[in-house]
Amino acid sequence: MSDSASALAVSVYEKIGGEPAVTATVNAFYERVLADPMLKGFFEETDLAMLKRQQVAFFTQALGGPELYRGPDMKTAHAHMAIEQRHFDQVAQHLVATLQSLGVAQEDINTIVQAVGPLANDIVNTEPSSHQDITSIPTQKKKRKESRMGQNGSSHKGG
Questions:
Q1: Each residue of 108-127: b (16+ CB within 10 Å) or e?
Q2: How many angstroms separate the CA atoms of 135 and 138, rounded?
Q3: The pTM is what?
Q4: Domain 2-128, CATH class in plain words
Q5: Contact at 8 Å (CB) between 115 and 60?
Q6: Which of 70, 96, 95, 87 shows the shortest CA–CA distance to 123?
Q7: Predicted pLDDT at 153
Q8: What pLDDT does 120 receive?
Q9: Long-range contacts from 46-49, C-beta under 8 angstroms, 24+ separation
Q10: CA distance 71 to 47
């Protein structure tokens, strides 16, 4: 069964265009990730050129191409970051959007997502907390303010 899965991964690497396509995907992917306010902070002190080279090697290998990745395992590589499931999901959404924008077939996108999805077990290392969910606070305050304004407005209408 694993030979079958491996053959499928090789075909995906080849079908999407090999190393040049993986490099283009990684470059476009990081443009999206670095523009995302939720994610860009994770990369502030990162050597992006090195990270992109590692990602190209990682994806090449993960999709059945040559075994080039020599970096740390995913758990070690992400241990120093407070990564929640929502961060992983956001990154996955950017990966899918990148692949779609590059014209990768949906069947191949599904295979790629199936290959990287289980990595959440090693990458996600932090439970959501109210302290880290600070990005939602302005929205909640705004909703409360709008709610109070609506209540005040309705009491004026009724009074």
A1: bbebbeebbeebbeebbeee
A2: 7
A3: 0.73
A4: mainly alpha
A5: no
A6: 87
A7: 44
A8: 94
A9: none
A10: 14
Structure tokens at 45: 């002190």
> Which amino acid is located at 121 in the chain?
N
d(CA 159, CA 155): 6
Cα 60 from Cα 73, distance rounded (Å): 15
Share of the chain above pLDDT 90, in %: 66
pLDDT digits (tens, 9 = 90+) for 90-115: 999 999 999 999 999 999 999 999 98
Name the strand (E) or helix (H) holding 86: helix 85-101
Contacts 24+ apart (CB under 8 A), 5-10: 6/64, 7/64, 8/64, 8/111, 9/62, 9/63, 9/64, 9/111, 9/115, 10/63, 10/64, 10/65
Q: What is the pLDDT of residue 128?
A: 85
Report d(CA 108, CA 15) in Å as an integer. 8
